[in-house]
Amino acid sequence: MTAPPNILYFTRTDPDVQEKGSEQRTHRIRAALASIGDVYTLIPVFDPSRERVDAERRIAWVCSERRGSWRWWKRNIVQRAFPGIQPVATFPLRRPREWEGIRFDAVVSRYITLTGYYQTWRWGPAFVDLDDTPWEILSTAAGTWPAKVLARAKAAVMRRWADGVFRQVRHVWVVRPDQTEQVRACPSVSVLPNLARPPEREPDPCGPQERFFLTVGVLDHPPNYRGIDAFLDRHWPAIAAAHPGWEYRIGGKNCPPALARKWSRIPGVRLLGWVDDLDDLYRRAHAVFAPIDSGSGSCIKVLEALIQARACLGPAFALRAVPSEDCTPANGLFPCETTADYLAALDRLRDDTSRHAIQTAARRYVLAHWSEKVFREEIRTTILSAIAPPGAGA
Predict the structure, then answer these.
(1) How confident is the model over 180-195, as pLDDT tens digits?
(2) Does an H or E element contain 120, and which?
(3) Which of these, 169, 94, 93, lies nearest to 129 by C-alpha position?
Protein backbone atom coordinates (compact mmCIF):
# COMPACT_ATOMS: atom_id res chain seq x y z
CA MET A 1 0.00 0.00 0.00
CA THR A 2 1.42 3.41 -1.00
CA ALA A 3 2.17 5.70 1.94
CA PRO A 4 0.26 9.00 2.05
CA PRO A 5 2.26 11.98 0.76
CA ASN A 6 3.93 14.45 3.10
CA ILE A 7 2.72 17.99 2.44
CA LEU A 8 4.39 21.16 3.73
CA TYR A 9 1.99 24.06 4.17
CA PHE A 10 3.36 27.62 4.41
CA THR A 11 0.95 30.08 6.05
CA ARG A 12 1.01 33.38 7.92
CA THR A 13 -1.45 32.38 10.64
CA ASP A 14 -2.46 29.39 12.72
CA PRO A 15 -4.75 27.39 10.41
CA ASP A 16 -7.17 26.68 13.25
CA VAL A 17 -7.91 30.41 13.76
CA GLN A 18 -10.87 31.52 11.64
CA GLU A 19 -11.77 35.08 12.60
CA LYS A 20 -11.11 36.67 9.20
CA GLY A 21 -12.12 35.56 5.73
CA SER A 22 -8.46 34.98 4.83
CA GLU A 23 -8.02 32.78 7.92
CA GLN A 24 -11.10 30.77 7.00
CA ARG A 25 -9.56 30.04 3.59
CA THR A 26 -6.28 29.06 5.24
CA HIS A 27 -8.20 26.60 7.43
CA ARG A 28 -10.14 25.14 4.51
CA ILE A 29 -7.02 24.53 2.45
CA ARG A 30 -5.29 22.77 5.35
CA ALA A 31 -8.39 20.58 5.83
CA ALA A 32 -8.37 19.68 2.14
CA LEU A 33 -4.66 18.85 2.26
CA ALA A 34 -5.23 16.65 5.32
CA SER A 35 -7.59 14.51 3.24
CA ILE A 36 -4.67 13.80 0.88
CA GLY A 37 -1.77 13.10 3.22
CA ASP A 38 0.18 14.18 6.30
CA VAL A 39 0.29 17.97 6.56
CA TYR A 40 3.12 19.88 8.24
CA THR A 41 2.37 23.59 8.70
CA LEU A 42 5.19 26.13 8.85
CA ILE A 43 4.54 29.69 10.05
CA PRO A 44 7.46 32.17 9.75
CA VAL A 45 7.92 34.59 12.66
CA PHE A 46 10.37 37.42 13.30
CA ASP A 47 10.95 36.95 17.01
CA PRO A 48 13.02 33.99 18.30
CA SER A 49 10.95 33.89 21.49
CA ARG A 50 7.91 32.90 19.41
CA GLU A 51 9.55 29.79 18.00
CA ARG A 52 7.84 26.57 19.01
CA VAL A 53 6.57 23.28 17.64
CA ASP A 54 3.09 21.88 18.21
CA ALA A 55 3.89 18.22 17.64
CA GLU A 56 0.28 17.04 17.90
CA ARG A 57 -0.92 19.38 15.13
CA ARG A 58 2.39 19.28 13.19
CA ILE A 59 2.67 23.09 13.27
CA ALA A 60 5.99 24.91 13.67
CA TRP A 61 6.61 28.62 14.22
CA VAL A 62 10.12 29.24 12.88
CA CYS A 63 12.10 32.47 13.12
CA SER A 64 13.27 33.47 9.67
CA GLU A 65 14.87 36.81 10.57
CA ARG A 66 15.25 38.83 13.71
CA ARG A 67 13.51 42.18 13.85
CA GLY A 68 16.10 44.92 13.60
CA SER A 69 18.68 42.77 11.83
CA TRP A 70 20.19 44.09 8.60
CA ARG A 71 18.31 41.44 6.63
CA TRP A 72 15.03 42.53 8.23
CA TRP A 73 15.75 46.18 7.43
CA LYS A 74 16.64 45.32 3.83
CA ARG A 75 13.38 43.45 3.37
CA ASN A 76 11.36 46.31 4.86
CA ILE A 77 13.06 48.95 2.73
CA VAL A 78 12.09 47.02 -0.40
CA GLN A 79 8.55 46.50 0.87
CA ARG A 80 8.09 50.18 1.64
CA ALA A 81 8.90 50.97 -1.97
CA PHE A 82 6.99 48.02 -3.43
CA PRO A 83 4.36 46.72 -0.99
CA GLY A 84 3.75 43.06 -1.62
CA ILE A 85 7.13 42.19 -3.10
CA GLN A 86 9.27 39.87 -1.01
CA PRO A 87 12.94 39.78 -2.00
CA VAL A 88 14.53 36.35 -1.88
CA ALA A 89 15.64 35.35 1.61
CA THR A 90 19.37 35.77 2.11
CA PHE A 91 19.59 32.48 3.95
CA PRO A 92 17.43 29.34 3.79
CA LEU A 93 14.64 28.89 6.29
CA ARG A 94 15.64 26.02 8.51
CA ARG A 95 13.25 23.24 9.26
CA PRO A 96 12.42 22.32 12.87
CA ARG A 97 14.63 19.67 14.42
CA GLU A 98 11.55 17.49 14.88
CA TRP A 99 11.01 17.41 11.10
CA GLU A 100 14.54 16.40 10.09
CA GLY A 101 14.61 13.64 7.50
CA ILE A 102 11.08 14.24 6.21
CA ARG A 103 10.81 14.44 2.42
CA PHE A 104 7.97 16.65 1.24
CA ASP A 105 6.05 15.47 -1.80
CA ALA A 106 4.25 18.80 -2.21
CA VAL A 107 4.71 22.31 -0.82
CA VAL A 108 1.64 24.56 -0.69
CA SER A 109 1.87 28.23 0.24
CA ARG A 110 -0.74 30.86 0.96
CA TYR A 111 0.07 33.91 -1.14
CA ILE A 112 2.85 34.50 -3.62
CA THR A 113 4.85 36.56 -1.10
CA LEU A 114 5.70 33.53 1.04
CA THR A 115 6.49 31.53 -2.09
CA GLY A 116 8.93 34.06 -3.50
CA TYR A 117 10.65 34.99 -0.27
CA TYR A 118 11.35 31.46 0.92
CA GLN A 119 11.66 29.93 -2.56
CA THR A 120 9.33 27.14 -1.53
CA TRP A 121 10.11 25.14 -4.68
CA ARG A 122 13.43 24.26 -3.05
CA TRP A 123 11.50 22.15 -0.52
CA GLY A 124 9.50 20.18 -3.10
CA PRO A 125 6.98 20.59 -5.95
CA ALA A 126 5.44 24.00 -5.23
CA PHE A 127 1.78 25.02 -5.34
CA VAL A 128 0.56 28.57 -4.70
CA ASP A 129 -2.79 29.84 -3.51
CA LEU A 130 -2.72 33.31 -5.04
CA ASP A 131 -5.90 34.82 -3.48
CA ASP A 132 -5.15 38.55 -3.04
CA THR A 133 -2.61 39.98 -5.49
CA PRO A 134 -0.60 43.03 -4.44
CA TRP A 135 -0.64 44.50 -7.95
CA GLU A 136 -4.46 44.48 -8.00
CA ILE A 137 -4.55 46.23 -4.65
CA LEU A 138 -2.24 48.97 -5.93
CA SER A 139 -3.90 49.40 -9.30
CA THR A 140 -7.37 49.82 -7.74
CA ALA A 141 -6.40 52.17 -4.91
CA ALA A 142 -7.98 55.62 -4.90
CA GLY A 143 -5.98 58.84 -4.80
CA THR A 144 -4.76 61.76 -6.86
CA TRP A 145 -3.67 61.08 -10.43
CA PRO A 146 0.10 61.30 -9.62
CA ALA A 147 -0.41 58.72 -6.86
CA LYS A 148 -2.38 56.49 -9.23
CA VAL A 149 0.33 56.69 -11.91
CA LEU A 150 3.00 55.77 -9.35
CA ALA A 151 0.86 52.92 -7.99
CA ARG A 152 0.38 51.48 -11.46
CA ALA A 153 4.09 51.69 -12.16
CA LYS A 154 4.78 49.77 -8.95
CA ALA A 155 2.11 47.25 -9.93
CA ALA A 156 3.90 46.65 -13.23
CA VAL A 157 7.17 45.96 -11.38
CA MET A 158 5.37 43.53 -9.10
CA ARG A 159 3.89 41.71 -12.07
CA ARG A 160 7.39 41.17 -13.50
CA TRP A 161 8.60 39.88 -10.13
CA ALA A 162 5.59 37.59 -9.82
CA ASP A 163 6.18 36.11 -13.29
CA GLY A 164 9.60 34.98 -12.11
CA VAL A 165 8.01 33.20 -9.17
CA PHE A 166 5.26 31.64 -11.28
CA ARG A 167 7.83 30.04 -13.58
CA GLN A 168 9.26 28.09 -10.64
CA VAL A 169 6.05 26.56 -9.31
CA ARG A 170 3.99 23.57 -10.36
CA HIS A 171 0.49 25.05 -10.08
CA VAL A 172 -1.32 28.26 -9.08
CA TRP A 173 -4.86 28.57 -7.72
CA VAL A 174 -6.76 31.82 -8.28
CA VAL A 175 -10.07 32.85 -6.71
CA ARG A 176 -11.73 34.35 -9.81
CA PRO A 177 -11.74 33.16 -13.44
CA ASP A 178 -10.49 36.53 -14.72
CA GLN A 179 -7.33 36.19 -12.59
CA THR A 180 -6.04 33.35 -14.77
CA GLU A 181 -4.82 35.99 -17.24
CA GLN A 182 -2.49 37.31 -14.53
CA VAL A 183 -0.71 33.96 -14.17
CA ARG A 184 0.32 33.26 -17.76
CA ALA A 185 3.91 32.53 -16.70
CA CYS A 186 2.75 29.36 -14.92
CA PRO A 187 1.66 26.54 -17.25
CA SER A 188 -0.92 25.16 -14.79
CA VAL A 189 -3.63 27.40 -13.30
CA SER A 190 -7.12 26.69 -11.98
CA VAL A 191 -9.86 28.47 -10.04
CA LEU A 192 -10.32 27.74 -6.34
CA PRO A 193 -13.12 30.13 -5.34
CA ASN A 194 -13.49 31.55 -1.88
CA LEU A 195 -16.23 30.09 0.30
CA ALA A 196 -18.23 31.87 2.97
CA ARG A 197 -18.32 30.31 6.40
CA PRO A 198 -21.66 28.51 6.75
CA PRO A 199 -23.85 29.76 9.60
CA GLU A 200 -24.08 27.61 12.70
CA ARG A 201 -27.86 27.93 12.66
CA GLU A 202 -30.06 27.52 9.61
CA PRO A 203 -31.07 31.02 8.42
CA ASP A 204 -34.75 31.88 8.10
CA PRO A 205 -35.30 33.85 4.87
CA CYS A 206 -38.85 34.68 5.94
CA GLY A 207 -38.28 35.53 9.60
CA PRO A 208 -38.80 38.97 11.19
CA GLN A 209 -36.18 41.59 10.38
CA GLU A 210 -35.31 44.86 12.05
CA ARG A 211 -34.90 48.37 10.68
CA PHE A 212 -31.18 48.37 9.98
CA PHE A 213 -28.73 47.73 7.16
CA LEU A 214 -25.45 45.92 7.75
CA THR A 215 -21.83 45.73 6.68
CA VAL A 216 -19.38 43.26 8.24
CA GLY A 217 -15.62 43.25 7.71
CA VAL A 218 -12.25 43.57 9.40
CA LEU A 219 -11.82 47.33 9.69
CA ASP A 220 -8.03 47.56 9.64
CA HIS A 221 -8.13 46.33 6.02
CA PRO A 222 -7.86 49.49 3.84
CA PRO A 223 -10.34 48.41 1.10
CA ASN A 224 -12.95 47.83 3.83
CA TYR A 225 -12.64 51.07 5.76
CA ARG A 226 -12.05 53.21 2.66
CA GLY A 227 -15.08 51.73 0.93
CA ILE A 228 -17.33 52.24 3.94
CA ASP A 229 -16.09 55.80 4.42
CA ALA A 230 -16.78 56.68 0.78
CA PHE A 231 -20.23 55.07 1.00
CA LEU A 232 -21.08 57.17 4.07
CA ASP A 233 -20.02 60.34 2.27
CA ARG A 234 -21.67 59.63 -1.09
CA HIS A 235 -24.76 57.53 -0.48
CA TRP A 236 -25.79 57.28 3.16
CA PRO A 237 -27.29 60.80 3.57
CA ALA A 238 -29.87 60.12 0.82
CA ILE A 239 -30.55 56.58 2.09
CA ALA A 240 -31.04 57.86 5.63
CA ALA A 241 -33.41 60.56 4.38
CA ALA A 242 -35.47 57.95 2.49
CA HIS A 243 -35.53 55.63 5.52
CA PRO A 244 -35.98 57.83 8.61
CA GLY A 245 -35.29 56.04 11.86
CA TRP A 246 -33.28 53.27 10.21
CA GLU A 247 -29.66 52.48 11.14
CA TYR A 248 -26.54 51.47 9.28
CA ARG A 249 -24.63 49.07 11.53
CA ILE A 250 -20.98 48.27 10.85
CA GLY A 251 -19.51 45.14 12.43
CA GLY A 252 -15.78 44.51 12.65
CA LYS A 253 -12.77 45.08 14.85
CA ASN A 254 -9.77 47.42 14.63
CA CYS A 255 -11.45 50.44 13.04
CA PRO A 256 -8.94 53.32 12.68
CA PRO A 257 -9.65 55.71 15.58
CA ALA A 258 -10.09 58.78 13.36
CA LEU A 259 -12.73 57.01 11.28
CA ALA A 260 -14.44 55.60 14.36
CA ARG A 261 -14.83 59.15 15.67
CA LYS A 262 -16.07 60.43 12.30
CA TRP A 263 -18.58 57.64 11.78
CA SER A 264 -19.96 57.87 15.32
CA ARG A 265 -20.97 61.48 14.61
CA ILE A 266 -23.05 60.54 11.54
CA PRO A 267 -26.78 60.20 12.36
CA GLY A 268 -28.03 56.65 12.05
CA VAL A 269 -24.60 55.01 11.95
CA ARG A 270 -23.62 52.54 14.67
CA LEU A 271 -20.15 51.02 14.89
CA LEU A 272 -20.49 47.63 16.58
CA GLY A 273 -16.86 46.52 16.89
CA TRP A 274 -16.26 42.79 17.28
CA VAL A 275 -19.49 40.78 16.97
CA ASP A 276 -19.74 37.52 18.93
CA ASP A 277 -22.87 36.20 17.21
CA LEU A 278 -22.78 37.03 13.50
CA ASP A 279 -25.61 34.62 12.72
CA ASP A 280 -27.97 36.58 14.95
CA LEU A 281 -26.84 39.90 13.49
CA TYR A 282 -27.47 38.73 9.93
CA ARG A 283 -30.80 37.19 10.95
CA ARG A 284 -32.05 40.57 12.19
CA ALA A 285 -30.60 42.71 9.35
CA HIS A 286 -32.88 44.02 6.61
CA ALA A 287 -30.18 43.97 3.89
CA VAL A 288 -26.38 43.95 3.55
CA PHE A 289 -24.18 46.60 1.95
CA ALA A 290 -20.80 45.67 0.43
CA PRO A 291 -19.42 49.11 -0.47
CA ILE A 292 -16.02 47.89 -1.67
CA ASP A 293 -14.39 49.44 -4.75
CA SER A 294 -10.72 48.54 -4.32
CA GLY A 295 -8.53 45.61 -3.31
CA SER A 296 -8.06 42.15 -4.71
CA GLY A 297 -9.25 38.57 -4.41
CA SER A 298 -12.98 38.15 -3.89
CA CYS A 299 -15.23 40.09 -1.54
CA ILE A 300 -16.16 37.31 0.88
CA LYS A 301 -18.73 39.51 2.64
CA VAL A 302 -20.91 39.23 -0.49
CA LEU A 303 -21.02 35.44 -0.35
CA GLU A 304 -21.46 35.59 3.41
CA ALA A 305 -24.58 37.73 2.98
CA LEU A 306 -26.05 35.28 0.47
CA ILE A 307 -25.37 32.21 2.59
CA GLN A 308 -27.07 34.02 5.49
CA ALA A 309 -30.13 34.50 3.23
CA ARG A 310 -29.76 38.25 2.93
CA ALA A 311 -29.79 40.46 -0.15
CA CYS A 312 -26.48 42.17 -0.89
CA LEU A 313 -26.07 45.63 -2.43
CA GLY A 314 -22.76 46.95 -3.74
CA PRO A 315 -20.75 48.10 -6.75
CA ALA A 316 -19.75 45.69 -9.50
CA PHE A 317 -16.22 45.61 -8.08
CA ALA A 318 -17.48 44.06 -4.84
CA LEU A 319 -19.54 41.48 -6.74
CA ARG A 320 -16.73 40.24 -9.01
CA ALA A 321 -16.58 36.81 -7.38
CA VAL A 322 -19.98 36.18 -9.00
CA PRO A 323 -20.31 35.93 -12.80
CA SER A 324 -21.71 39.24 -14.06
CA GLU A 325 -24.70 37.54 -15.67
CA ASP A 326 -25.66 36.14 -12.24
CA CYS A 327 -25.51 39.50 -10.43
CA THR A 328 -29.27 39.99 -10.40
CA PRO A 329 -32.00 40.32 -7.75
CA ALA A 330 -33.09 36.80 -8.75
CA ASN A 331 -29.92 35.64 -6.95
CA GLY A 332 -30.08 38.17 -4.12
CA LEU A 333 -27.57 40.58 -5.68
CA PHE A 334 -28.14 44.27 -6.51
CA PRO A 335 -25.31 46.01 -8.42
CA CYS A 336 -25.29 49.63 -7.17
CA GLU A 337 -22.96 52.27 -8.57
CA THR A 338 -25.02 55.39 -7.77
CA THR A 339 -27.18 56.62 -4.94
CA ALA A 340 -30.20 56.14 -7.18
CA ASP A 341 -29.25 52.47 -7.61
CA TYR A 342 -29.18 51.95 -3.84
CA LEU A 343 -32.51 53.71 -3.35
CA ALA A 344 -34.17 51.68 -6.12
CA ALA A 345 -32.83 48.40 -4.70
CA LEU A 346 -34.03 49.24 -1.19
CA ASP A 347 -37.47 50.20 -2.54
CA ARG A 348 -37.70 46.72 -4.06
CA LEU A 349 -36.82 45.21 -0.69
CA ARG A 350 -39.51 47.11 1.25
CA ASP A 351 -42.24 44.59 0.48
CA ASP A 352 -41.98 41.59 2.80
CA THR A 353 -43.16 39.01 0.28
CA SER A 354 -40.76 40.18 -2.43
CA ARG A 355 -37.84 40.45 0.01
CA HIS A 356 -38.44 36.98 1.43
CA ALA A 357 -38.47 35.48 -2.07
CA ILE A 358 -35.19 37.25 -2.92
CA GLN A 359 -33.57 36.09 0.33
CA THR A 360 -34.64 32.48 -0.28
CA ALA A 361 -33.19 32.62 -3.79
CA ALA A 362 -29.94 34.17 -2.51
CA ARG A 363 -29.21 31.26 -0.20
CA ARG A 364 -30.25 28.69 -2.78
CA TYR A 365 -27.93 30.28 -5.36
CA VAL A 366 -24.78 30.37 -3.23
CA LEU A 367 -25.26 26.83 -1.96
CA ALA A 368 -25.63 25.58 -5.53
CA HIS A 369 -22.49 27.26 -6.85
CA TRP A 370 -20.02 27.40 -3.93
CA SER A 371 -19.47 23.91 -2.59
CA GLU A 372 -17.07 22.68 0.10
CA LYS A 373 -16.95 19.32 -1.69
CA VAL A 374 -15.88 20.89 -4.99
CA PHE A 375 -13.31 23.03 -3.16
CA ARG A 376 -11.66 19.99 -1.59
CA GLU A 377 -11.81 17.93 -4.76
CA GLU A 378 -10.06 20.68 -6.76
CA ILE A 379 -7.12 20.66 -4.33
CA ARG A 380 -7.01 16.89 -4.11
CA THR A 381 -7.10 16.28 -7.87
CA THR A 382 -4.55 18.99 -8.66
CA ILE A 383 -1.96 17.84 -6.15
CA LEU A 384 -2.29 14.11 -6.69
CA SER A 385 -2.08 14.43 -10.47
CA ALA A 386 0.95 16.73 -10.23
CA ILE A 387 2.98 14.52 -7.88
CA ALA A 388 2.00 11.16 -9.38
CA PRO A 389 5.01 9.21 -10.67
CA PRO A 390 5.40 8.94 -14.46
CA GLY A 391 3.11 6.28 -15.89
CA ALA A 392 0.88 6.12 -12.83
CA GLY A 393 -2.68 5.37 -13.70
CA ALA A 394 -1.84 4.61 -17.30
Answers:
(1) 888 989 989 999 999 9
(2) none
(3) 169
